[in-house]
Design a protein that fits this description.
The chain is an all-alpha fold. It is 68% helix and 0% strand. Helix 2 packs across helix 3, helix 5 packs across helix 6 and helix 5 runs antiparallel to helix 10. The relative contact order is 0.11.
Length: 225
């Protein structure tokens, strides 16, 4: 039998459609992050949730729609927490250190971004790009504001800066465990998170040509070797 049609757990009766939809998205996030879009089967997701495969169609018309909903859910929390007050430098650094905490708390986010990046096709807008437009536009507007106010003196284009910031964190969480095999490093350890925050802020300050945010000065001092 095709594994996508298997039901390996008993089907449970459901009365709360909102709860069921949330459970489908949570299960789908785990499967998409570990197996990718192509090798994730709706039957496996349904089995984990405890519903019939056909029940997923009640909430999502296709696997792509479910995948898009997963991405929207994953990144909605971080987008909602983007700072709204302070200097451009302070907001930028708060958002970037918040991004690191977000990825540490939700490792599937990093895996999903890596898979999206690897599978990206020229001329085709990936689901991640459409769901991630809000934070991208926020950063673009913030950097433009910083340039206008004289806070930022960018050495590279905004889109290249954003690509670099995203890559640094995603690659760090994915690669540091095997790069540090002789002396194991947990990227989610609090001390390691603070070190990584310092690293990404140092790169940001260099690329955007500004002095460190005063509100992050103490943290930078604590992280310095």
């Amino acid at each position: 039998m095709h594994r996508g049609l298997e039901i390996t757990s008993p089907v449970r009766r459901r009365s709360n459609g909102i709860r069921t939809r949330a459970e489908i998205i949570a299960a789908a996030e785990r499967h998409f992050a570990s197996s990718g879009f192509r090798d994730t089967y709706l039957g496996d997701i349904a089995a984990e949730v405890g519903i019939r495969r056909a029940s997923i169609s009640y909430h999502f018309s296709s696997k792509l729609e479910l995948y898009t909903a997963v991405l929207e859910t994953v990144f909605a929390g971080w987008a909602e927490d983007l700072p709204g007050g302070g200097t451009a430098a302070h907001r930028l650094e708060t958002a970037m250190t918040g991004w690191i905490d977000f990825v540490a708390q939700r490792p599937s986010a990093a895996r999903l971004i890596l898979r999206e990046s690897v599978n990206a096709q020229p001329g085709k807008i990936a689901a991640f790009l459409s769901t991630g437009s809000v934070p991208v536009e926020w950063f673009e507007a913030l950097i433009a504001e910083g340039v206008t106010s004289g806070e930022f003196h960018p050495k590279i284009e905004t889109q290249r800066f954003l690509s670099l910031m995203c890559a640094i964190t995603v690659a760090h969480f994915a690669a540091i465990p095997w790069l540090s095999r002789r002396v194991p490093v947990d990227p989610c350890d609090r001390e390691e998170l603070e070190k990584h925050k310092l690293e990404i802020l140092l790169v940001a300050r260099t690329m955007l040509g500004y002095e460190r945010s005063e509100r992050h000065a103490d943290a930078s001092t604590r992280c310095a070797p």
